[in-house]
Amino acid sequence: MSGSGSRRGSGSQGTQARISSFFSQSAGPGTPTKTSNGKRGGSPIDLTLDSDEDVHAPPPKKQKITTSTFFSPRRPAASAPKPATPTTKSGGHAEQWRFDPKSPNLSQRTTENATQREAHERAKKILLGSASLFGGRDHSGDVTPSSDVEEGPDAPVLEDEEDETEKKFSELMEMFSSSSSKAKPKGKRAATKKAAPPVAGPSRSKSQKIEEIGPSGRPYTPFELQVRELKAKHPGTVLMIQSGYKMLFFEEDAKIASKELGMVCFPKRNLLTAMIPLHRRDVHMKKLLSQGYKVGIVEQTETAALKKAGDTRNELFEREVTHLYTAATFVDDLNSLDELDPNAAPPLMCLLEEPRGGMGTDERVNIVMIAISPSTGDVVWDEFDDNHMRTELETRMVHTKPYELLLPAKKLSPATEKMIKHFTEHSHTEHRMRIERFSKPMAYTDAFALLSDFYRGKERNVGEDKGHLMASIAEFSKLVVIALAQSLKYLTAFNVADALRETRFFARFTERTHMLLNANTLTNLEIYRNDTDYTTKGSLMWILDRTSTKFGARLLRSWVGKPLIDTQALRERTDAVEEILSNRSPRLTQLRELLRRLPDLARGLCRIQYGKCTPQELVVLLKAFRRVSTTFTPPHPAQSQQAATAPSTGLKSQLLVGIVEALPRLRDAVKEVCDAVDFGAAEQGKEDAMWTDVDRYPELDSLNACIQVAESELMDELKAIRKAIKKPALQYTTWNGEEYVVEIRKDERREIPANWTLLSSTKYARRYHTPEVRAKLQERAQYKEALAAEAHRAFLSFLAEITDKHYALLRDAVNKLAVADCLFSLAQVAAQEGYARPEFVETHDGDAEDVLEIVEGRHPMIEALRTDPFVPNSLKIGGGETRHRIITGPNMGGKSSAVRMTALCAIMAQIGSYVPAKSMKLSLLDGVLTRMGASDELSRGRSTFMVEMQETSDILHMATSKTLVVLDELGRGTSTFDGMAIAGAVLQHLVQDVKCKTLFITHYPQVATDLERMFPAAVGNMHMGFSEETRVDGTREVTFLYRLEPGLVTESFGVECARLAGLPESVLQIASARAASMRDIIEGRIRRTK
Q1: In this structure, are residues 372 and 499 in contact, taking their beta carbons and an 8 Å threshold?
Q2: Which of 388, 455, 542, 933 has its CB 3.0 to 4.6 Å from that of 469, i.e. a possible disulfide?
Q3: What is the pLDDT of residues 179-198, one digit of tens each?
């Protein structure tokens, strides 16, 4: 033992090497060898110690278990002495976790850290309340109370210390988080930093922001939150959000884009996303508009340079909906090539109604219609009474072809809603009609006040305009004022409310100067589109439209749908067409050449009016108007009274003379506007440099001066750079869009200042920006962005000035040009071979000269579509002949073509066109009503026969003595006897009571015979000619002659028509036998009743 002790003594003096000395953290011999709890904490291991020498050492004292060990006071600091570090050290709270070689050894710290973690976990459970899960267990049986646990008021001391430790730890984590965020790239926003994990209990920081977790399990980014906010602000709108060089769709909008545009919709982080290139924006937007969607364009409202200089430079760019469009409110570019219907302006129609009493079939309503075409500025309104089937409303909708309906949210009457639903679902158009509803109609006082503010708010040069506008509004009925105000409120959201600014250009749908072709007539006679594939080809519009301009084509469409009934206006129109054909005046040649090169001036004016016109479009419009104003020399003021008859004009037609004299009035106004614009700069889109007078907008001049000063300072800085690097010949270069770049070759080995910013480095050269240059470039960029904003404001003010001063004059000139274009179009039709000018006969009620006579007339569309010659037909109604003609004949014999030819020639004549006939004489008709074909309307609850009867009812209510009525096979949708009875009764009513001109096609010979016998002076029978041959096998062969001939035909040759259709011969033989049998029975009954 003594030897062992001596050996240990010598080892303590450093004579014995120990392995543990390599791992000891002790600084010297003064380090304690045992901890306070009796264990060897950091004592070295003596390899010379015998294994049995320590057998009798007392075992470590077992620690007693207590239920409140968590609240026991900490042990004295002797077990883990803290280094005496000053609290003011730069590390702050991190000092207590900083590594220090003088601290206790690893095993000791590990034990203490494990104890602290255990205490930390238990403290967290208690503070969060989860420790109550174990509250029901009883530990008294297996736990011995500790005598060294201090209870009473001093127990919570440890909890306070743990809270203090937790608080310091949280502050440390925040310090680490902030330091790591500073190391991130500059492009990341501070707001996108991930928040520190939330701390449980009262130690949670009150300023800590809780981030919302998205479907992907990750927090929403600021951009995603911005998208959600925009969607919440604009419900029901498809948002196209610009981000860089892409347009993005999100969530439901992405699904719509995937469905309608055929693109991929995919999840990206927390939102469904679809995207398109920026340059394809308008193409895809028009597709969405054509499908009835409302589309909003979201763009950045902050520029990069100005934002960088502002207080929000580290935040996300602000985005807002800058443009809002629907199909009706979208005003396309001046020369767009992808319009759905180039010859029609998509209108918005607002409808309101008031009940007028009645129930069922006696129901009557008063309906107000406002149809606005923002792209052309046309406004059409009407107020009318309608029946329970809403045929008047349907007629107006067929004429107007609305792209969007503005209706009250509280539904209209059931009959109106049903008609609108049927019209929208069966319109056979390429676009889908949109229905927008407003909460409830305004009160009359609010509506009148809104219109008053709108018209008084517009600045006018002449004070009388305001009074004239308000007088026009006051003349409207209350319901019209409310509908107009509701339309104004809706259009204001799209910035196209100025379409309503000129009430002088409002037009009523029904006027005394023209007839109104109802919906059935437009469909049956194929006025606007054919009834096969619903395109323009094969329609009357296709025959007559030879216009050169889009605004002329739109006016011609209105002429075709509303033939004239005013004799004077009709004669002026036909005189103008005849003079264009016969007169070789150079003025007409000049006018025709002028029209061939004009853009869509009506749309261009509206784009100026709404502030949507670009500088390039303005140049195109101004050049066009200047060409219009200088084509004709204005007459001398002294000759203004004789201008219409002066031989120098060379024109006789009042319409043509008025057009030629109206155009030169534009000269002064157009010259004033053109002189203010530099066309060269405007064609390049330079809004800041397109003004000939620099003093017109002084703000632009001052900003340009600031930019020039900044650029001169940049050139002065070049001198300083030359001196700094000792290179007198140095010049700025431009690299990758960066201006004022200093390029230094590497082989020059020049000393570059440390504060220069390296832009790029290649094998041979380096490119730099100096701090001064960067500052000046930033300043210049701010000036340029301010200049661009101010230049755009100046450009908009210039457009507003054009509108306020010259809109009415320019609009009137466009209307005159449209009339000229329509007249030239009708003249081209008239120049075709076989067309003749119709002769109009003035008559009075009861005059025997009331006549409709066509000599060798032809169907205009069939003649143009077929290569075979059309067999002409002659027909005379009135003027000594019977006014009602019953037409019979074989199926497929040409009966419908003959009556359609008659109706179309009458309409063409009253449009002002020549007609495809050898000659035509007619008294003016006040309407053409037709009932042809068979179709059901199940969506409106009407069967085929019900549709037939309803259309017949409308004709009987609308027809007058000056109406042409065409009835084709009335009564065929029910039983034979009911059909015959109805057909005979209707025709008898037309003969006895209405006394109109009638063309009545029937396969009931008994009806024709009876009515001709009852009214021999008023009813005459005609039939389509044919020849018949009987073959050896008993079958008959019929040859159609397609000529109207007098007399009655009792057979319809239905079996022969079925043979042409390809029915089996066995079926036809049975049908022939039964037809002969039934014919014998009927003839026998007739003989017995005589």
Answers
A1: yes
A2: 455
A3: 444 444 444 343 434 444 44
Q: What is the rounded distance in angstroms from the CA atom of residue 221 to the CA atom of residue 428?
A: 45
Q: Taking a C-beta distance cutoff of 8 angstroms, is the pair 370, 483 a contact?
A: yes
Beta strands (DSSP E) in 182-286 are 238-243, 246-250, 266-268, 271-277
* φ and ψ at residue 198, rounded to 5 degrees: -60, 140
User: What are the pLDDT digits (tens) for 373-402?
Assistant: 998 888 999 999 988 888 889 889 888 889
pTM of the model: 0.72
Residue with tokens 């037809």: 1075
Find the Cα–Cα–Cα–Cα dihedral 148, 151, 154, 155, rounded to 10°: 90
DSSP3 helix / strand / coil % (the chain, rounded to 5): 45, 15, 40
pLDDT band at 461 (very low <50, low <70, confident <90, very high): very low
Residue 174 amino acid letter: E
Which amino acid, 545? D
Q: What is the mean pLDDT of residues 988-998?
A: 91
Tell me the pairing of strands 997-1001 and 246-250: unpaired
Which residue type is seen at 358?
G
Give the amino acid at 1083: E
φ, ψ of residue 575 in degrees (nearest 5): -65, -40
DSSP state of 405: E
- Sheet with 738-745, strands from edge to edge, namely 733-735, 738-745, 765-769, 757-761
Angle in degrees, CA 106, 107, 112, rounded to 5: 100
Question: Alpha-carbon distance 299 to 696, whole Å?
Answer: 30
Cα separation of 283 and 257, whole Å? 13
Each residue's pLDDT tens digit, 98-115: 555 554 444 454 555 666
Diameter over CA atoms, the chain: 164
Distance CA 531, CA 724 (A): 84
Q: Is 363:389 a contact under the CB 8 Å cutoff?
A: no
State residue 227 phi and psi, 5-degree precision.
Answer: -65, -45
CA atoms within 13 A on the CB side of 792: 9
